Amino acid sequence: MNPKVSVIPTYNYERYIERAVDSVLRQSYESIEVTVADSSKVTGFPS
C-alpha cells in the first residue's frame, strides 16, 4: 500500500495554485491526493 502524498500550502498566492497542482500531477508517483491549504482570508476567489 502506497501512502498518498501531496500538500500545497499557500498564503495569498492563488495565482500559483494551478502551476503547483499541475506540477504535482505530472510526477511519476501514482498514489496522489492533492490538498491545497490557503491560510489567508484575502483571495481573489468569491466566498
Gross morphology: elongated
β-strand amount = 15-25%
Please give the number of β-strands. Answer: 2
Mean pLDDT: 76
Lateral arrangement of strands in the main beta sheet = 1-2
Secondary structure blueprint with pairings:
Layout lengths: L6 E4 L3 H12 L9 E4 L9
Give a description of the structure:
This protein is of the alpha+beta class and 47 residues long. Helix 1 (14-25) links the parallel strand 1 (7-10) and strand 2 (35-38). It has a two-stranded parallel sheet. It is elongated. The mean pLDDT is 76. It has a domain at 1-30. The chain has one helix at 14-25, and strands spanning 7-10, 35-38.
Question: In short, what is this structure?
Answer:
By secondary structure, the protein is of the alpha+beta class.
Question: What are the salient characteristics of this protein?
Answer:
alpha+beta, 2 strands, 47 residues, two-stranded parallel ribbon, 17% strand
